[in-house]
Amino acid sequence: MTQCCSLLIDIGDWTTALALAPSVSLEYWQELTAKYAEHLSIASREDCIPYYVAVKKYDEAVDFYLKRKDHYNALVVAKSSESSSSSSSSLSINQKNNHFNTTDSYDTINTKSKIIMDNIINHSAKKYLEENLPLTAAAQYLRVGNNKSYTNTNTNTNTNTNTNTNRECPISC
Fold first, then answer.
1. 124 and 71 in one domain?
2. 31 C-beta neighbours (distance < 10 Å), count
3. Is the model more confident about 123 or about 88?
């Protein structure tokens, strides 16, 4: 059966190969699924994401979105990896308003997920600071409940905005 799957992959019939792979073993199916996800990723196809998630390769899924500068979806994947590793965490995503809610505080998230989310949030916040949008940058930290970094951003923003006193009033008085 493994030889059959290999031949199917050689002719480009990944779907049939993935359908037959579980008859060999779960590990074999996971291996093929990871290879297929990588194959789709190299072709810049977004449908690689469900395959990465199926074999718990969240880092690769996050990297795929970050390469596309899609920070929102990268954060969704990072948060879902955190919630799948912790059964006590409940995650809800309100896509209309781009809000994330979790019952766990930022400080109790497992280390790997926290690192992924920190990288995404820091990158996103830095981008907003470069675009002179400090409140949006601070909101990135609040989005995941990282009040400590929000406070640091807010403090830095206050000192930066007070140094420029030659601004005109945007409303006529």
1. yes
2. 14
3. 123
131 and 143, same domain (yes or no): yes
Report the C-alpha gap between 142 and 122 in whole angstroms: 12
For the chain, how far is it from start to end, CA to CA, in angstroms? 80
Q: Say yes or no: 32 and 106 in one domain.
A: no
Q: What is the CA radius of gyration of the chain?
A: 21
Close Cβ partners of 24 (under 8 Å, ≥ 6 residues apart): 1, 2, 5
Segment 34-59 shows an average pLDDT of: 94
Q: Which domain holds residue 101?
A: 59-161
**Domain match, 67 and 129 both:** yes
| Mean pLDDT for all residues in the chain | 74
Q: Rounded CA gap, 62 and 103, in Å?
A: 22
* pLDDT for 152: 56
User: What stretches of 21-146 show up as alpha helix (H) in DSSP?
Assistant: 26-42, 49-54, 58-67, 71-85, 111-130, 134-143
pLDDT score, position 42: 95
**Residue 133: strand, helix, or coil:** coil
pLDDT in tens, 111-156: 666 777 777 777 778 888 888 888 888 887 776 665 555 455 555 5
The predicted pLDDT at position 102 comes to 44
Helix then strand count (H, E) for the chain reads 9, 2
